[in-house]
Design goal:
By secondary structure, the protein is α+β, with helices and mostly antiparallel strands. 42% of the residues lie in helices and 14% in strands. Helix 1 crosses helix 11 and helix 2 packs antiparallel against helix 8.
């Protein structure tokens, strides 16, 4: 077996577009999944699907996509909606910065293009939140422009076909892989070709246990010939996950709980949450909660019980959340918003109107299931 870091000629003598490109297109036409944005390839539908699919699995995206399109069927609907509405519809998909950029882009499309998504790749890239990948995807899938799409699946497929020995995220690798995809693409078939590559990566050329015997382009796959499929693509070293302990308080008063809104910048910007924060070294979760509520709201509390512990992974963090029920002590203290931008007292059955991070939402579901609508 070849070593994963061998180097050598990889780009020369690539199979020309007709055999490998048309083999992929033909396979896709026969095997494509009936995804909703493929019904008409409406530019808005393609755009929304591509944004949702960034770092999110297809199985999770599909129900979100259907609900989103029913609620916000046009670019104009996104442009006019409140950010709170958009975040609530997005809740659970993560990477919430996508929502804010999506709305900014929609507003620019309405202002600059009369609500019509531009078809040129460069014009798309000038819109907020649309980078090279999304611009290429919309330009090729929605408008048939002959530009390659280099998503994670396409990186894996092309790296294996080439037996590419360098980390795929490197600038040189990105340039080479995009170049060969463009060479393989049959003219005028960008929509089918790009989706074929991505679909192949999703269904056949998987990260683990690829189904090489079912691959329509196995005859051209250099990694298969060299028995290096398991070593391709070469990935960069993943950053270590950082463990974080967090304590939050479900602050109760007169049948309601207190929630606060995060600032419009930074992690989880614009989402609602229960007050609390990260533990300092050596602190117990209870000590963390007392300190955080004093710092964030200027209040002292009595903890009346522990509700649960929730473990949740987000970006580079492993979150261990401790949730406590608490009350103000003394009860007549005013709350000062020192880090949040807004605070509300809300009954449990009213919390579904607000967008929360996933761990907070899990806590809310637990509270509602255990206690009905009474805090």
């Amino acid at each position: 077996m070849s070593d994963a870091h061998d180097t050598g000629p990889v780009v020369n003598a690539i199979a020309p577009a007709p055999p490998i490109g048309f083999a992929l297109v033909g396979w896709f036409v026969q095997n494509q999944r009936p995804l909703p944005w493929r019904r008409h390839y409406d530019p808005y539908a393609v755009w929304i699907s591509e944004v949702m699919l960034q770092q999110t699995q297809m199985s999770k995206v599909l129900p979100y996509y259907e609900r989103w399109m029913a609620r916000f069927p046009t670019v104009q609907a996104v442009a006019k909606a409140s950010l709170e509405e958009l975040l609530r519809a997005w809740e659970g998909l993560g990477y919430y910065g996508r929502v804010r950029q999506l709305q900014k882009a929609a507003q620019e499309i309405v202002t600059l293009y009369g609500g019509n998504i531009p078809w040129e790749e460069e014009a798309l890239r000038r819109l907020p939140g649309i980078g090279p990948y999304t611009a290429a995807a919309v330009a090729s899938l929605a408008f048939g422009r002959d530009v390659p799409v280099l998503d994670g699946n396409a990186q894996r497929v092309s790296a294996r076909l080439l037996d590419w020995p360098k980390p795929v995220k490197d600038a040189e690798s990105q340039r080479i892989l995009r170049q060969v995809l463009e060479e393989w693409m049959p003219s005028g078939r960008a929509r089918e070709f790009n989706q074929a590559v991505m679909e192949l990566g999703s269904l056949i050329c998987k990260p683990k246990k690829p189904r090489c015997t079912q691959c329509p382009v196995r005859a051209w796959c250099r990694a298969y010939a060299a028995d290096t499929v398991a070593h391709r693509p070469v990935a960069p070293r993943r950053p270590l996950m950082q463990a974080i302990t967090v304590a939050v308080g479900v602050l109760c008063d007169n049948g309601k709980v207190f929630i606060q809104k995060r600032p419009p910048q930074g992690l989880m910007a614009g989402l609602w949450e229960f007050p609390g924060g990260k533990a300092h070294e050596g602190e117990t979760p209870e000590e963390t909660l007392h300190r955080e509520l004093a710092e964030e709201l200027g209040v002292t509390v009595t903890i009346t019980g522990k509700i649960t512990e929730i473990r949740h992974a987000i970006t580079r963090y492993r979150l261990h959340l401790h949730a406590f029920r608490c009350v103000l002590n003394p009860p007549d203290q005013p709350l000062e918003l020192r880090s949040a931008v807004q605070g509300l007292w809300v009954p449990l059955d009213g919390l579904d109107q607000y967008a929360f991070p996933s761990a907070n939402r899990r806590l809310i579901r637990m509270l509602q299931t255990r206690q009905g609508t009474t805090p």
